[in-house]
Amino acid sequence: xxxxxxxxxxxxxxxxxxxxxxxxxxxxxxxxxxxxxxxxxxxxxxxxxxxxxxxxxxxxxxxxxxxxxxxxxxxxxxxxxxxxxxxxxxxxxxxxxxxxxxxxxxxxxxxxxxxxxxxxxxxxxxxxxxxxxxxxxxxxxxxxxxxxxxxxxxxxxxxxxxxxxxxxxxx
Length: 171
Description:
mainly alpha
């Protein structure tokens, strides 16, 4: 029996390799949705004309900088919602502003709990897992709202492009 156990020795380098691959897979599962989310924010700003755009589309990528994203997300949500309401009007809602700001507040709370660690207020530490779950739910709801606004913005953009093509004489 001892001979069989001795033959099952595990190579430490193999374990390190498996851990590296596992961390890489987890990182990709986190980063990929964030990239697609930022592409949705960028798309909303891209559909707006320069007159209606409240923020340059490329600035959404600043949300990839972890410490900055906790604050920059507030600015991004406000500017994207202002752009959406400028084009669609207030009758279509707030452009996701309320749910986006709620997600931003929850995201900031996650950062506070992470940075302060055990020195964070007990009410924040006790509900840390709940806060992460609430943040994810609010983020997904905001993303869904943004997606529905993007569909409407794309219809308006396509109609404007078609009207522009009809007015301009061919060269």
